[in-house]
Specification:
Radius of gyration: 15 Å
Number of helices: 2
Structural class: alpha+beta
Largest sheet: 5 strands, antiparallel
Distance between the termini: 8 Å
Strand order of the largest sheet: 3-4-5-6-7
Helix content: 10-25%
Shape: globular
Order of helices and strands: HHEEEEEEE
């Protein structure tokens, strides 16, 4: 990517940071209310296709689509992926495929970020500065 394109793409990180924060709060609330994440659904953490939800597919109002799953680290850790839309998302679409992954543990407050570009993990760290790809 050109330096200009990279800088513009980095501004898209604001959407990711906002949505990861909302998901983190909802996941923590579920865990605190239930003492486990067993039974937690996408709806519980705000991800879906209905109005007002964080989009699970590329839409004209979002640069990313969001997915989540169980972490191999066990309960209550989950991971959330923000996959940059290369088509069907908010214009302009990305020319390079990449995604952010965010692991969170509401029991300890631990969190970890990573960025994967074209299937290659670039780095992992525990700060909230977003710069990818």
């Amino acid at each position: 990517l050109s330096q200009y394109t990279s800088q513009i793409e980095n501004t898209r990180g604001a959407e990711v940071k906002t949505n990861f924060g909302a998901i983190r709060r909802l996941h923590a609330a579920y865990y605190l209310a239930n003492g486990t994440r067993t039974g937690e659904t996408s709806t519980d953490i705000g991800i879906g296709s209905s109005a007002g939800q964080i989009p699970s597919s590329c839409t004209s109002t979002s640069y990313f689509r969001y997915t989540w799953g169980n972490s191999s680290m066990g309960d209550p850790v989950i991971y959330i992926d923000a996959n940059r839309c290369t088509s069907g998302g908010k214009a302009p679409s990305a020319s390079t495929s990449y995604y952010w992954r965010y692991w969170i543990n509401p029991g300890t407050g631990w969190e970890q970020w990573s960025c994967t570009v074209n299937g290659v993990a670039k780095w992992e760290y525990s700060e909230r500065t977003l710069s990818c790809p």
